[in-house]
Amino acid sequence: MKNYWSRWMFVPALIFLFSSCGPSAHIEKDKSVDFSRYKTFAWVDKDGEGRKDRNNRNDITESNIRTAVNKQLQKAGFEETKRRPDILLSYDLLVERSTVQNNDPVYSQPFTRAFYSPYYRRYFFVNYPSQFIGYDRSERSIKEGTVTISMIDARSGKTVWQGWATDEVSSRNLTSKEIDAVVRSIFKKADLAKR
Prior knowledge:
Elements (H helix, E strand, L loop, with lengths): L1 H7 L1 H11 L3 E6 L10 E4 L15 H17 L3 E2 L6 E21 L3 E7 L4 E7 L3 E22 L5 E11 L6 H15 L5
Parallel strand pairs: 2-3, 2-4
Antiparallel strand pairs: 1-8, 4-7, 5-6, 7-8
């Protein structure tokens, strides 16, 4: 029985490890606004401007972002409507190149040295452990994707909440998994369920 439990003890540790990894999110909100009065939302439609902008995303990416945000807002008790919403939503997506510096510690190789003692007439072996030498510094190019979600009060037109997260991405077009991870991390920190 003890062997059975020891085999499965690593599962919670693995879940904790994977849940702690992910993009770091940041939230800014207007502290004077009572968020409990917001119950419905709608997306701000794109007006077609900037179609030739090279940062303009395709329709699949836009659909994935909207779906991920809708899912998180519905979990928090919001309802999407086209008729007189309480808040308007917009998003911004930026993918840019960046560099990451790695500082890896470097240690010397441990070794053993033999000494002859004429007094005892035998050899003694002394172990020298590895020692810290310094850092091996390197740089690598990465692509970082930043998703910013804004909530705008429909009556006043004032931005009342904004959340954003940045994570390393594989290409200029974010996959649905990358979008889900970023949006989840934003709304995990937003804590809109308690409002």
